[in-house]
Amino acid sequence: MFVRLRLWQNSLSISARTAWSMAVGLTLVIAATAVVAFGQEQNTAIDESLVRLDQRNAKIVDELAQRFDRIARTQARAIDLFRAERATLTPAQARREFDALYPLGADGTRRSTDVMFDGGRTAIGHVEGMAAFVPGGVANDLEAVRDMVAATHAVRALGEGSRFEIESLYFFTPANAMVIFAPDRPDGLEYYRRTAPASFGFQDAEFATISTQTANPARSMLCTGLQSLISLQNRQVWTTGCMTPVDRDGRHIGTFGTSMPLDQVVPAGHFADNSDDNVILVSREGRLIYHPEYTLQHSSRTGQYLDITTSDKPELRALWALVRKHGKSGFTGKADDLDAYVSLQAIPGAGWYALTVKPERLILAEALRPLPRIAGMAVIALFVCILAVTLALRSLVGNPLRRLTRDAQRITRELANDAILVLPDRDRSRNEVTRLVRWFETMASAIRQSHSLLEERVAERTAALNQANDKLRLLSEIDPLTGIANRRKILAELDDRLTRVRAGSAMAVLVVDVDNFKAINDRHGHVAGDDALRVLAQLMQSLLRPGDALGRMGGEEFVIILDRARPVIADAIAERIRAAIARNSFEVHGNLALSITVSIGVANWHPGDTARALYARADGALYQAKTAGRNCAITSRHVPGAERSAA
User: Fold this and answer.
1) Which residue among the candidates 97, 366, 556, 557 is catalytic per the annotation?
2) What is the DSSP track for 553-595?
3) What would the pLDDT profile of 140-182 be if each residue is shown by its tens digit?
4) Among 565, 628, 629, which Cα is nearest to 602's?
5) SS3 label, residue 550
6) Residue 225 CB neighbours (<10 A)
7) What is the pTM assigned to this prediction?
8) Over the stretch 310-354, which tens digit does the pLDDT of each residue have?
9) Is 63 an active-site residue?
10) Is 478 exposed, middle or buried (0-12, 13-18, 19+ CB in 10 A)?
């Protein structure tokens, strides 16, 4: 058979023989290349997956750490406010407020009135979203009474202000008394207000035990594992909570806490943006906080998997072994017992660990995915190469090369005549390929030089254009005197925010006008007046919160947009700005120290408001402030459909 194959090969033309030789050689090269490519793709897929796992896990850790930091700061503020309120409460005042807020029931307990949750006036002002349970006997302890009243003040003050950040805020004592702010709880806190038995106690619950001096000697915030809400006994609601204890004279008197239902610790879809990756949360005690398969809200089976230190599930045992080994130092790599690649990081402030897990089979599938494409491209390249060689050998390669060489010489001489390049030395070689290469190298060199020069010029022009555009944008948006947003920019910002505000949210607009500013210009000159406006703008900017916006409408009038500011917050900020300006001394041109006051009009956003309506109400309130004697802040009353054009 070998002889027949040899005879068949000799019968072929040179082009065909060359084509078949190339086919065999290229096939072997492509096969070897495919093997190498697969190995490289596999390593690349693993490296890229590990980077993505680490980045995603770091993002999750950062988001959870920020949430726990907000909770810790809120509870720290609650403790400070609790102590301040208690210090100002007289025993008689504490008793009056305690009896009014928590009347004695038939079973000997005291519970909050319905108005505290439904909303309305109480002995301590307007209250809503709150409930309380006070067991019998607490009322006989005057110090405990003062503690409950002071805690009620603190929870009421901070609960509404932190509502957009936390789900609940509560205070409980070792005597099983509790006051809680949770206006969005679906059960309406019915358990504490009505159905809790007189013998209700929770000192054996984890959220209470971690607050003791034995379990928490550092007296810092600690978080529980998953547990079922005691107030929802008719259905499973899994939640975790973070607790900060409060001591007085070395004795534990109570704890401020915040609960987070499982579906808020891990909002629906938040950790599932990549179906290939699983996110798992584990506490340092070996309690499963979140697992997409084992911890499900409203499922009674969730409780079977919470303790992974003694779990009979191999996967959960492997998770705990990984956390014990690498929890303190972190880990990114392959976990053989899980048949997966894992990124493990600690979550600051919670005592939890976040793991992002991707099965090994999915990474290998990613490595195999490019192979059909590589094979297809290789077959196409092989066919094209063989066809090109066959056609070239069939058609007297020499003549086309000579014609191509002559054309190259002609083009090169034309370029040389234009002083673009210098002709190469005369080549006496008969090798057409060598001569052609030399001529083409000469042309390529000139083209590269020309292309490089063109790119440099384009880059210079582009940079200059970008700088000019940036300057134009700044000139169109910034007030040149004060450096803050000008009228066009601040009104555009108001329009933009109104398109994004939703029902249930809050926003306010303040119109600030300097009182008797014309007198400053007339008495001290326009240079001093300009200095005063600049310093005034800097002072107001320093008093605003992140997310608020300040702009100058013209003259001595400014507009402030308060982001997420409910009416009480807007009024407080307006008064803070007015008071700070009134007590401040403004250093201006001529070594003068001016005293300046402002009048402020406040308008709170209501659904359906346009920018024109909101500004008109604030401007109307400003007019009332001027009429009322200046140096004051007045809030407009919302009258649907009514607005006054800005003067």
Assistant:
1) 556
2) EETTEEEEEEET--HHHHHHHHHHHHHHHHH-EEEETTTEEEE
3) 999 999 999 999 999 999 987 777 677 889 999 999 999 999 9
4) 565
5) strand
6) 21
7) 0.53
8) 888 888 888 999 998 898 888 998 888 888 899 999 988 777 898
9) no
10) middle
